[in-house]
Amino acid sequence: MDLNYQEIADRAAAHALKSGIILDYSEKSIVEVESILGEYYNHLAEYDGREGADTLWNIAVHYGIYLGETMLRLRLGEKGFAWYMDNGMPVLKNRTSAQISPITKAHKRMLNGPEDNVKSFFDVALLLADGKFPTKHVVHRAINVQLPSGQIIENVPYRDITPYIMMIEEGREDFLILESQDGFFQFYGIDNQFVAEVRVNLPNGDFQTYSIIDKEKEQQMERIRLSTPYGQFTPTEREVVPLGLVQTVVRAYYEHINAEDFLKSIPCVDTTEETKRCMGLIK
Q1: d(Cα 30, Cα 123) in Å, to the nearest integer?
Q2: Is 222 exposed, middle or buried (0-12, 13-18, 19+ CB in 10 A)?
Q3: What tens digit of pLDDT does each residue of 116-136 get?
Q4: Integer angstrom CA distances of residue 221 from 108, 180, 243
Q5: pLDDT bracket for residue 173 (50, 70, 90)
Q6: How many CB atoms lie within 10 A of CB 54?
């Protein structure tokens, strides 16, 4: 039986209204959804056992579908996205097979906490719809994508990189490595906070490493704690960058086959000495 997604989303809005929260299918309302799901996370201990798990899943379905319906209204619908069933799970897909799972995200937000922020998830979906992850085939580098599982997808063109980036934002993968003929670009993080690094292999067998930085925080050198599904890290404040910057660097990595030109096009700092010291290659 086909689901009536609009009806389910309206039930979520009615549920929120009981607490005085108005969900009107606007971008602003997603902040309210984040708050609602956050309250369930704050009281997670009250939802134990099978009954509790079923309750949380029901909440995830309703607010996840509300999230999806809002995405469709604001941008995704006009870009060719629609609801499809994927192994019994409603997901949003378009013609290029990009897939977004708002129900899964809503469920993870209640189980995992702020690291699965649904507003960040929503923002990334709009970036996708607005073409901020362009699909035009402009590829100069040959890129292989490596997943945490060890799986390597060879020769991924730029137009097909978006679903892999979405895997990171949605928490379905912990990190991505984009390998090229002279090194790699890797990034990991959550909730619009990412650490991104570049390694350049030199012709003489040596290498150099660089960290992507936020230029607006270039002077902020204090170390902070960043918790991700990949582990605990202590980068400097300037090394924690938003997803939009990661996307810019991904595009530059594809479009600059020469490493020197690539590094000139992005905000970064040389971390070669620090990296080699950590690896025990120098004292």
Answers
A1: 10
A2: exposed
A3: 789 888 887 877 666 655 444
A4: 32, 30, 20
A5: confident
A6: 11
